Amino acid sequence: MVIRQVNSEVVELDEKSIRQIVTEIFVDQFKLFTLDYPEFAPSEQNQEVTEYWHINPDFNTVAQAIVNCIKKDFDKQIDLTTIQKINQQLLIHRYIGSRRYPELWNYLYKNKSQIAEQWAALDRFDLEIGDSYALLLDKKRQQIKSKPAVTAISVAKSIRTGISQDKLNTLIKERIDDIFPNNYIALSQVKESLMDLGLIAIKNEFIFPTPIVQRFDLEERSKGNDNE
């Protein structure tokens, strides 16, 4: 019964593998299952015998404690070194700007040769470091297809020398209407992409494009293809 129930939830494991795992954990390690065999009358001794387990009454309590322990390990925050934090940020967002991440940026700039060599050793990434930004370039990079991200790139290119912060929403709406007229795209998603991709810098309620903007090219597309 236990084997079949587990197999119905974890279909990628066969019954033999499940039995082995259950035996190792609950029979051998925690002693919660005790292997036993049914009793037969003398006339039934020659029939095939199927083993089964006696389950300890404390099983539910112990099982819940195991689950809680596993969840605690997953939720535990890992202390990262500064270089690990920098590499994590680059791997996720591909960009670190001096204004948005001043502490990471200062450390990165002071140790730029060492950090750049680490990425170069992977033979897949080039770390470009400017005066106020670091950009991780993937040699196997793919096209950005996210509509909010594509819109954000278009917005950043349209800013040119800069705009006041209160005009950003209007500009985003204009770019959405021009590129994806038949789609709903939340302004907040575009703003998030602008920041995550490091496309803009904000100072004194004024928005400027960052040097990273020139790294992006937008393909010409007709308005009839906005559902792609």
Could you give a short description of this structure?
This protein has 228 residues and is α+β, with helices and mostly antiparallel strands. The protein is 46% helix and 14% strand. The protein has a 3-stranded antiparallel beta sheet with strand order 3-5-4. Strands 6-8-7 form a 3-stranded antiparallel beta sheet. Strands 1-2 form a two-stranded antiparallel ribbon.
- CATH architecture annotation name of the largest domain: Orthogonal Bundle
Quote the distance from N terminus to C terminus.
48 Å
In DSSP terms (H or I, runs of 4 or more residues), the helix count works out at 9
Task: Please give the CATH class of the largest domain.
Answer: Mainly Alpha
Succession of helices and strands = HHEEHHEHHEEHEHHEE
Instruction: Let me know the largest β-sheet.
Output: 3 strands, antiparallel
Average pLDDT number: 79
CATH level-3 fold name of the largest domain: Arc Repressor Mutant, subunit A
Low-confidence stretches: none
Shape, per Cα inertia axes:
elongated
Query: DSSP strand (E) fraction?
Result: 5-15%
Total E-strand runs: 8
Q: What topology emerges from the helices and strands here?
A:
Elements: H1 2-9, H2 15-29, E1 33-36, E2 52-55, H3 59-75, H4 82-93, E3 95-97, H5 102-110, H6 112-120, E4 125-129, E5 133-138, H7 147-159, E6 163-164, H8 168-179, H9 187-196, E7 200-203, E8 206-209
Antiparallel strand pairs: 1-2, 3-5, 4-5, 6-8, 7-8
Helix pairs in contact: 1-2, 4-5, 7-8, 7-9
